[in-house]
Design goal:
The complex is a heterodimer of chains A (617) and B (598). With 617 residues, chain A is α/β, with parallel strands linked by helices. Chain A is built from 18 helices and 19 strands. In chain B, helix 5 crosses helix 16 and helix 13 packs parallel to helix 17. The chains are: A alpha/beta (617), B alpha/beta (598). Chain A: Pathway: Carbohydrate degradation; pentose phosphate pathway; D-ribulose 5-phosphate from D-glucose 6-phosphate (oxidative stage): step 1/3.
């Protein structure tokens, strides 16, 4: 069946003649080569005019090698294998918004194996057609190459099917199994289950899927989304239950932050550049900041959130994972196990969080410009007396030789003034600085800083002290910049695409191992317990503000200054700056209409100045 | 002290009343500072740079972020504000004001006369007068100054003014009062004609100068913009007959400073008959370039560079200079010297010394120059083997024929003078042992540029090795400081190409001056003239530096000339002789500039 949909289906149909088979075979072989080369064989594209090095060597050497010693299943005779991806909880939001679009994007870019089917599974009664209809609304093609978009969508949707059933019914999963078998029609079957369902039914589904719908011939893998428990115990319990039905290497715990482009790039930056690694220790780094902020609140969907809070929702997983990647020692290789071993070591070297190292906050209602924004407890899905933190800042320490004494600060919050996620590395001051006079008394004010902005507008920049051009000797902090948008025109893939593909390929680097999870919970559990048992009151902050001031005092205690609270406009790409400039101007204009500016001349002048100053960047 | 003197240097706000006492000086700062604190950041920066043109030296680092200018919490703002003020005040502790810097003496009572000897020459017209005007335009000259043109041509003051006025331009970014300022400036320009070797004529000059000084303390600066063979004569006459009686007398000399160790030493000796070491200002205008000035700032005020600044991390350093035109009918002077003397032995070597020096004790001129001399003295003299020379030949491209070097009428037909040279140098000290410092300079090449490239070593035990193939050195980090054109700093890093695969890519962390700083970058001559007026010697070459520089190059120059070594010919507009590549290859280096880079 699925073969009918393959590249050649439109042409002649069956491959009766031997010749055809051969040509078909070689076609996919080259296909695979192409793909695998792109993905697994690292290559360096040089922009400095050197010949594209290493590529020829890799073509001969490593492709041959990978074909020879290939262990993972998917590439094992792809024409004879079939991949089924079952999205459990297909009618849910995540499935609609992220999973199906990501699958389509992979299909669109030819990353998926030749033979695959996508199954939606949920309790809702629905036909295949209805599922397709639902999905099609959220599919988009890459902006940068729109060719055949409609055709591709059609083809993709034809491979999508739906099966309705209860999550805890082994029978229903048995039915699913039958259907899958039918599609597989005797091919080697590989099955991936994506559990996009509430945590309380994780185990049921895993039980049913694993006992009734496991692949008989190929692999069966299960992708699980957060939350992985609420604390050490519940997490351990969950792991134990999962392991009743699955082995460790079948469990793919997704942390979609690890699929972000710049998080992936973090290791590349560190380990493939000579200039960074020597600086990567307490000798040169003063502190590291992991900052996450959202500019909206729970907006009527606080039910889940209220049970977890920002620390569990963002810090204990996303930020801590990034921290571990940031701080780990050089792994033996880029293999998943090697990397995860190093990450666990970091987590195990960390000091358990203490209450005094944490500040929690909760947003309250706020009116601005005639518009009022609701507070957290105004959300109907949130209990009126909730003390769940929607903001938290924490100071963590890694007690190992490399990082002893270096504060790692985290900050995460909802309903703040911006949406962003970034890593900021503040370096120490220059010892015996010749230019000390130019810095005044606080030598820490003008230290170097490396910023990796994960979102929005991916960028890397390094703040350096520089002489302001001119006759004097004025120093200035400017940036060595890399804006992804200006350098790379291609659309950056969504984190889910990367992670799904990795799961399909059995690449576990970006998934969380059980012992990592344990170690992560061990750091946060005592603190979470303490906050909850003592009902610690969060510091209230207005919706849309910069968060509670407590975060500053926490930072100050460790002699740190948050790097993100500034007019960072300089680091916006030029067009964004232009937009701001325009917006600002319009704002000024509108405020002038409201007679705020009595003196028109002054108003125009100030508008002009704003314009100028922005253009100046 | 450097920063202090600079912070004081041009504070005579001509618009206001002039003589500034300590308190008024501080006031200037205070006026500006609170402003910058309450207004949006960039605006503030702009304000400061506009208003305090003549204290561009407020010596405050402009912070792009941090608390200043943040509206986050008021508690945050107050502390830094106060602190900042304190800092500003602390920058100029009271005792600094006793600094015996001449300009700072009472402006009412002192005057500076700048005499451009060789005023009808090209350099004077194109560079010196415009630079002086730019300084005047930006209020950086002292209250009382006069400019004298001196040369053999007969000319009236008006004629000089007429000549000068044609080359004056105002800063592009602030054109206010341009014509007015020009008028005012020209009013202060005078002309005196005379022979370069005539004490009498200089005596007349002295008399006129005295008139203009009208009893004030007289400080005199002579800019010798004349051929080297009459240096000494002019210095003798000027010093004997036209020295300042009560202030200082300084002489700016341009290259060439001799042709080799011997002639240079002779020149220095002759100069010293009439002048003290601290009266001689040997100009190397490359040292006045913005990014060369910035080199030390980059190294010494950033934590991230200094740890990397040694043989442990740096694989090689390249100093590259290229011009996209030939001698174009003015080869007479050049043919006598050649590219090695014209560019390498002075400009590139000076930059090299700045690049490689140890951290000086302070930013004082003597401290910096001490360190530079140490570098030069640790270097191995060049041998013929370490050098590749070339000469451009004619070339026809797209119907246009470009002349070869020997086609130039002012060049002898059999000239072997190199118009291109590449050299490898080594510094035998603990920091740089074994690191090749490569230089390349040439005329009539395919582009015009000057840059410093620092190539770093490969990452030891790189876990991304597979991505790099066999040659690990191909994808190393590289720091590029482009001195001209389009000043820029960029650091090449390896980066993941966004997308689902794992492809690495060399991209740049960039700082393009044009994009970041809208202000026009002053010409090197402005900076150097101002420094000379203020007695700041940091960017001028001391006699012992010059000696050390010559002793590195003299043997190879002698060899080349005595053995009449034939240069490798390269077509006009090409990338230069291929020999440069073989020279680099010998030290396992690849020139970084020959790519589709920018």
């Amino acid at each position: 069946m699925a073969i009918q949909l393959s590249h050649f289906s439109s042409s002649s149909t069956t491959f009766s003649s031997f010749d055809h088979k051969i040509s078909y075979f070689s076609k996919w072989v080259t296909d695979i080569h192409f793909r695998r080369q792109l993905r697994n064989n690292f290559e360096l594209k040089s922009t400095n005019g050197y010949p594209l090095n290493a590529i020829p060597m890799q073509d001969e050497g490593s492709v041959a090698k990978t074909l020879g010693e290939e262990v993972p299943f998917p590439e094992f005779g792809e024409a004879n294998s079939m991949l089924s991806i079952t999205v459990v909880g297909a009618s849910g939001d995540l499935a609609k918004k992220k999973i199906f679009p990501a699958l389509f994007a992979l299909y669109y870019e030819d990353w998926l194996p030749e033979n695959f089917v996508v199954y939606g599974y949920a309790r809702t009664k629905m036909t295949d057609e209805e599922l397709r209809n639902m999905i099609s609304k959220t599919l988009t093609c890459r902006i940068d190459r729109r060719e055949n978009c409609q055709d591709k969508m059609e083809e993709f949707l034809k491979r999508c099917f739906y099966h309705s059933g209860q999550y805890n019914s082994e029978e229903h999963f048995l039915e699913l199994n039958c259907k899958l078998k039918e599609r597989e029609s005797g091919k080697l079957s590989n099955r991936l289950f994506y559990l996009s369902i509430p945590p309380n039914i994780f185990v049921d589904v895993v039980r049913c899927a694993s006992t009734k719908a496991s692949s008989a011939t190929g692999w069966t893998r299960v992708i699980v989304e957060k939350p992985f428990g609420r604390d050490s115990e519940s997490s351990r319990e969950l792991t134990k239950c999962l392991k009743q039905y699955l082995t460790e290497d079948q469990i793919f715990r997704i942390d979609h932050y690890l699929g972000k482009e710049l998080v992936e790039n973090l290791s590349v930056l560190r380990f493939s550049n000579l200039v960074f690694e020597p600086l990567w220790s307490r000798n040169y780094i003063r502190n590291v900041q992991f900052i996450f902020s959202e500019d909206f609140g729970t907006e009527g969907r606080g039910g889940y959130f209220d049970n977890y809070g920002i620390i569990r929702d963002i810090m204990q997983n996303h930020l801590l994972q990034i921290l571990a990647l940031f701080a780990m020692e050089t792994p033996v290789s880029l293999d998943a196990e090697d990397i995860r071993n190093e990450k666990v070591k970091v987590l195990k070297s960390m000091k358990q969080l203490q209450l005094e190292d944490v500040v929690v906050g909760q947003y309250k209602g706020h009116s601005k410009g005639g518009k009022s924004y609701p507070g957290y407890i105004d959300d109907p899905t949130v209990p009126k007396d909730s003390v769940t933190p929607t903001f938290a800042a924490a100071a963590l320490f890694i007690n190992n030789a490399r990082w002893d004494g270096v504060p790692f600060l985290m900050k995460a919050g909802k309903a703040l003034h911006t949406k962003r996620a970034e890593i900021r590395v503040q370096f120490r001051h220059v010892p015996g600085n010749l230019y000390r006079r130019n810095f005044g008394t606080d030598v820490d004010k003008a230290t170097n800083e490396l910023v990796l902005r994960l979102q929005p507008d991916e960028a890397i920049y390094l703040k350096i002290n520089n002489k302001v051009p001119g006759l004097g000797m004025r120093l200035d902090r400017s940036d060595l910049n890399l804006f992804y948008k200006t350098r790379y025109t291609r659309e950056i893939p969504d984190a889910y695409e990367r992670l799904l593909l990795d799961a399909i390929e059995g690449e576990r680097r970006l998934f969380i191992r059980s012992d990592e999870l344990d170690a992560a919970w061990a750091l946060f559990t005592p603190l979470l317990k303490e906050i909850e048992e003592n009902k610690i009151m969060p510091e209230l902050y207005p919706y849309g503000s910069r968060g509670p001031v407590g975060a500053h005092y926490l930072a100050a205690k460790h002699n740190v200054r948050w790097g993100d609270l500034s007019v960072d406009g300089l680091f916006l790409p030029a067009f964004a700056a232009g937009k701001i400039c325009l917006d600002g101007f319009l704002l000024l204009y509108s405020s002038s209409l409201s007679k705020k500016f009595k003196d028109q001349k002054r108003f125009w002048w100030s508008g002009f100045e704003v314009l100028l100053s922005v253009i100046q960047i | 002290m450097a920063t202090i003197s600079s912070s004081i240097r041009c504070c005579s706000s001509s618009s206001s009343s002039s003589s500034y006492s300590n308190s008024s000086y501080i006031e200037v700062h205070q006026k500006n500072v609170p402003f910058s604190l309450v207004s949006p950041k960039r605006l503030a920066a702009k304000k400061v740079s506009l208003q305090s043109k003549c204290n561009p030296y407020s010596d405050v680092i402009i912070m792009q972020d941090g608390a200043v200018g943040t509206t986050a919490a008021t508690t945050e703002n107050k502390a830094p504000l106060k602190k900042l003020k304190d800092e500003l005040l602390s920058i100029i502790p009271p005792d600094e004001h006793k600094e015996p810097i001449e300009v700072r003496g009472n402006n009412d009572k002192s005057t500076v006369s700048i005499t451009v000897v060789g005023a009808s020459g090209d350099l004077a017209k194109k560079k010196i007068f415009p630079a002086l005007f730019a300084l005047y335009y930006e209020d950086c000259l002292p209250e009382h100054f006069t400019i004298f043109g001196y040369s053999r041509s007969k000319m009236t003051d008006a004629e000089l003014r007429n000549m000068v006025s044609r080359t004056l331009t105002c800063r592009i970014d602030k054109r206010e009062n341009c014509d007015e300022k020009m008028e005012q400036f020209l009013q202060r320009c005078f002309y005196q004609s005379g022979q370069y070797d005539s004490q009498e004529n200089f005596m007349e000059l002295d008399k006129t100068l005295k008139e203009h000084e009208s009893g004030r303390i007289s400080n005199r600066l002579f800019y010798l913009s004349i051929p080297p063979n009459i240096f000494i004569d002019a210095v003798r006459c000027a010093s004997l007959s036209a020295s300042a009686s009560d202030g200082w007398t300084r002489v700016i000399v341009e290259k060439p400073f001799g042709r080799d160790s011997g002639s240079s030493a002779a020149l220095t000796r002759a100069l010293k008959q009439y002048l003290e070491e601290d009266q001689i200002f040997r100009i190397d205008h490359y040292l006045g370039k913005e990014l060369v000035e910035n080199l030390s700032v980059l190294r010494f005020s950033n934590l991230i560079f200094e740890p990397l600044w040694s043989r442990q991390y740096i694989r090689n350093v390249q100093f590259i200079f290229s011009e996209d035109f030939g001698t174009e009918g003015r080869g007479g002077y050049f043919d006598h010297y050649g590219i090695i003397r014209d560019i390498m032995q002075n400009h590139l070597l000076q930059i090299l010394a700045l690049f490689a020096m140890e951290t000086p004790v302070s930013l004082d001129a003597e401290d910096i120059r001490n360190e530079k001399v140490k570098v030069l003295r640790s270097m191995r003299p060049l041998r013929v083997d370490d050098v590749v020379i070339g000469q451009y030949k004619s070339h026809t491209k797209g119907g246009v024929t470009y002349p070869g070097y020997t086609d130039d009428k002012t060049v002898p037909k059999d000239s072997l003078t190199p118009t291109f040279a590449a050299a490898s140098l080594f510094i035998d000290n603990a920091r740089w042992d074994g690191v090749p410092f490569l230089m390349k300079a040439g005329k009539a090449l395919h582009n015009r540029r000057a840059e410093i490239r620092v190539q770093f070593r490969h990452v030891p035990g790189n876990i991304y090795n597979r991505n790099f193939g066999t040659d690990l050195d191909r994808a190393t980090n590289e720091l590029v400081i482009r001195v001209q054109p389009d000043e820029a700093i960029y650091l090449k890093i390896n980066n993941k190409v966004p997308g689902l695969g794992m492809r690495l890519d060399r991209s740049n962390l960039n700082l393009l001056y044009k994009a970041r700083y809208s202000k026009e970058i002053p010409d090197a001559y402005e900076r150097l003239l101002l420094d000379a007026i203020e007695g700041e010697r940091r960017l001028f070459i001391r006699s012992d530096e010059l000696d050390a520089a010559w002793s590195l190059f003299t043997p190879v120059l002698k060899d080349l000339e005595e053995k009449r070594i034939i240069p490798e010919y390269y077509p006009y507009g090409s990338r230069g002789p291929v020999g440069a590549h073989y020279l680099a290859a010998r030290y396992n280096v690849k020139w970084g500039d020959l790519g589709v880079d920018e």
